[in-house]
Design goal:
This protein is 22% helix and 28% strand. By secondary structure, it is α+β, with helices and mostly antiparallel strands. It has two domains: 321 residues, Thiolase/Chalcone synthase (Peroxisomal Thiolase, Chain A, domain 1); 123 residues, no CATH class. The protein has a nine-stranded mixed β-sheet, sandwiched between helices. Strands 20-19-18-21-22 form a five-stranded antiparallel β-sheet. It has a three-stranded mixed β-sheet with strand order 3-2-14, with no helix packed on it. The longest helix has 24 residues.
């Protein structure tokens, strides 16, 4: 039986919350940094999911999001490349619906059960925007999740599923718009969420002869905390059976929301637990999951718990508004306009920049980044093996702070990073507090955007202080 082999998640470092000047809500929500988007968060979740797993065994990757950075360009290929998967993998995007994450999960299960893939990664990430100061803004958060689906060493069997398709205009975002729109609340709740999600759960129970009393934990989507509690009562759940939602700490992460709550549930799950997973958006998906003894072997992930334990409150709401393009911040100094990166150069250097490959000399074993034609240690020529540096342990060798170059979070910190086992790189540092930087501090690499001229996202790896 196909099921979940591994899980992972990602929650950005920064929060809006009490302590943020100009933030009017009493709750926290996770916000992606200025150099993050749904692709970079999906990469982080996938890497968390692949901890201890041979990446060459993964046969495909699905990416689910309502906020893909491109309207016409597959995001899953970028996520798969940055995750250093094989070239002969199946990639696909699932989008345009809050149900995209569970749509991708269902497609991955079908692919594994049909034998077209042995292991398939499902990633989901979103950073939806609401109108500033609106009632919706405190509810929406940013984050991602990843599930590895396969039919061997299964930690969570997916016993079955039931889906309902429903044509309704409740929430939407048209091309060219950046913020979410919604119809009148009573209509979208009575005719949509309150009606359709219980219908899918009821259909699942009837199909598999189950009831609410048979569940250990229930994980389900909701637009806000009040509706989450209401649906629990309507399904007939005891409060102890309900997986706490992420409202007030992370927020509603759109297509990733239900899967992130599932990851949080699996972090506490025990063998024999039976879990309901239900998601809503233009219909509803419902799944029955059963936890196996294998779950104990995949607890060494950061997951929701690990990432939520590491956070920083943003000082000023205006900085967040500038990150999302709601206001324009004046540059510290005049600089030439950033030019669009060369498509041919990006293609030619994709292994170096996206997979983050350096090389290692076969003669002396010296590792170096960027890859060289001549070994800087023994001077051997053209005798190297590719080495992935993105997941290597590292430390900060030295750094400089630039207060003149425009940056989404000034000052721009340029770091020299030494990798464990050899190798050194010069790059930008992100998610850092300049008062906490110390020579020799542990560093990790993170996939981010450098800049976006003329709508072209230039991705690369930055360094950041070790989370947690």
């Amino acid at each position: 039986m196909a099921g979940i082999i591994s899980y992972g998640a990602y929650v950005p470092l920064y929060r809006l919350g009490p302590g943020t000047a100009g933030w009017m809500a009493p709750v926290e929500k996770a916000i992606a940094n200025f150099d993050e988007d749904s692709i970079t968060m999906a990469v982080a979740a996938a890497i968390d999911c692949m901890n201890g797993i041979d990446r060459s065994t993964i046969d495909g990757l699905y990416f689910a999001s309502t906020t893909s950075p491109y309207v016409e360009k597959q995001a899953a290929t970028t996520v798969a490349t940055a995750s250093d998967l094989r070239r002969d993998v199946l990639t696909a995007d699932f989008t345009n619906s809050l149900r995209a994450g569970t749509n991708a999960l269902r497609a991955a299960l079908d692919a594994v059960n049909a034998g077209s893939a042995k292991q398939l990664m499902v990633t989901a990430a979103d950073m939806r925007l609401a109108t500033p100061r609106s009632e919706l803004e405190p509810l929406l958060g940013d984050g991602g999740a990843a599930l590895l689906i396969g039919d061997e060493r299964v930690a969570v069997n997916i016993v079955g599923s039931y889906s309902v398709s429903d044509e309704i205009l409740d929430v939407w975002r048209v091309q060219g718009e950046t913020v979410v729109s919604a119809w009148e609340e009573r209509f979208i709740l009575d005719e949509g969420y309150r009606s359709i999600l219980p219908e899918a759960v009821s259909g699942l129970f009837q199909k598999y002869n189950l009831g609410a009393k048979d569940l250990t934990k229930a994980v389900y989507y909701a637009p806000d905390p009040r509706r989450h509690a209401e649906i629990g009562r309507r399904i007939g759940l005891d409060p102890a059976q309900i997986q706490p939602p992420l409202f007030g700490a992370v927020g509603n992460t759109g297509a990733a929301f239900a899967l992130m709550m599932l990851v949080a549930a699996l972090e506490e799950a025990k063998p024999g637990d039976r879990i309901l997973l239900a998601n809503y958006g233009d219909g509803a998906d419902a799944f029955i999951l059963e936890v196996t003894k294998q779950i104990s072997k995949i607890k060494n992930r950061r997951g929701i718990k690990g990432y939520m334990a590491s956070k920083k409150i943003l000082n000023d709401y205006q900085l967040y508004a500038s990150w999302r393009g709601f206001v324009e911040m004046s540059a510290a100094a005049r600089r030439p306009e950033i030019v669009m990166p060369s498509a041919s150069a990006v293609w030619r250097e994709r292994d170096q920049n996206i997979r983050f490959y350096g090389n290692k000399c076969r003669k002396c074993g010296y590792a170096q980044y960027p890859p060289q034609l001549v070994c800087t240690n023994c001077h051997a020529r053209g005798d190297f093996d590719d080495v992935r540096f993105s997941d290597k342990k590292a430390e900060l060798f030295t750094y400089a702070m630039d207060y003149l170059t425009p940056s989404g979070d000034p000052p721009l910190v340029i770091a020299v990073v030494n990798f464990e086992g050899g190798g050194r790189t010069l790059n930008m540092m992100t998610d850092r507090d300049i008062d906490e930087l110390k020579i020799g501090m542990p560093i990790e690499m993170t996939f981010r955007k450098l800049f976006t001229p003329k709508g072209v996202h230039n991705y690369y790896w930055k360094s950041m202080p070790l989370r947690g």
